[in-house]
Every structure is written in C-alpha cells, then in structure tokens.
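Obj: model holo form, ligand = zinc ion.
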Amino acid sequence: MGADEYNQGQLDSGDLSITDVTKMVESWQRLNPPLAVDGYAGPNTIASLNQEPEIVKIWPLLSLPDGRVPVITSGFYTENDSRPTHKGVDMFFKWIAKDPDVKVGNCGAIMRNGKRRWWYPDGYVAVAAANGVVMTAGDTRSGWRCWVDHGNGERTGYFHGASLLVKEGDKVEAGDPVIVVGCNPKNYNAKHLHFEVSPVDRYAPKNPRVWLKDANYRG
Ligand SMILES: [Zn+2]
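Output (holo structure tokens):
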C-alpha cells in the first residue's frame, strides 16, 4: 500500500480528520521558513516536502580492518589554544604493537614516550565524507588538496595529500577515495589528513568535529 492510499484510509476511517492534516501541514510550515503558516498544502509547501533529505555523512577515513576508527588529534582553532589559525582538524589512527614499524617523523608516524602513537598505514586514502561533486582539486603549498561540494550549501576539504585521486567536476559518493594521505610539505612532520568544512559560497570554515557528530564510521 502506498502512502497516499494509507493516508486516504486514515481519513476515510476517521482515524485522521482534516483538522489533523491541517495541523500537520502547519507544523511543517512553521519548521520550514519562509513558508506561510496557513495549513494549506500549496505548491511551495509540496516542493518543500519533496526537497532532498539532509546529506548522509561518513568519516573521511575508512576504519582499519580490525575496526579501529580515526581519531581527531588536533582540533579546530576555536577549541585549540595552541593553534589559533587551525581551520580544520587533523586525524590519525592509533598505533598498536601489532602494527608495522613504520618510520617516525619525516612524513611518518608520531612518537610519544618512546613508542609510536599516531600513524597511517602506507598508501592510506582519504574518502569523500558525503556524496558530491569535486569543486577544486590541485597542488598547493600544503600538498595535494581537493574540495567536494555536497549540494546542500556545504563543502568538505581534504588536505596534505601525497597524490590526488579525483579531478574537478568528478562526481563522488561517500566513501570514494579522493587523496592518498600524505604530509604537509611546509614541515614534513607526520603523515595525516587535515579535514575542513565550509559553506560553498565563501571560505568560512566551521568545526569539523561538530559536523561529524552525525557521521557514521565506515570500514
Ligand atoms: Zn591540520
């Protein structure tokens, strides 16, 4: 049974009245300005009901085969006193003893207390965090970088790539590889993904940690 048929049945049986339906339309209109709140399901209200749903987000790094998920190790500037110009977040995986003895520093892992602490497997890729279209993709002073426009007024940026896997205009789906994770050639410290979120129409980065709150991990 389709929704129309079901709803008509509700009306026919008296389980729903026209007043109920009008109230539902009004409550939708109230939540979706600039719709007029008149309870009338006219063309504008119907178009609003048919709009694309919110984008579906995933983390821009796929979980490791053993289930380890990416970790934000360096936050957005508003929450990061030591980095007042950091317009995104840095992500790593936690290194554990069974992992390879990847090199430390010089575009390798980060050492803490004599042990590797944060790392990436060789050749690890960053992936599109939601469906979209590649807006820009190219080489920069901070490595290969691309931005993906998600069609909802937002874009995500993937920085410090060792190489680029997409080009401008490419359609990507959540989970499609966009860059091979590399390091920032300004200092060649550790290999990591720097991830940003901004409105499409201007560069006004917002906190990716907040943006990722409703993102799923994907393996
Ligand atoms: Zn960063």
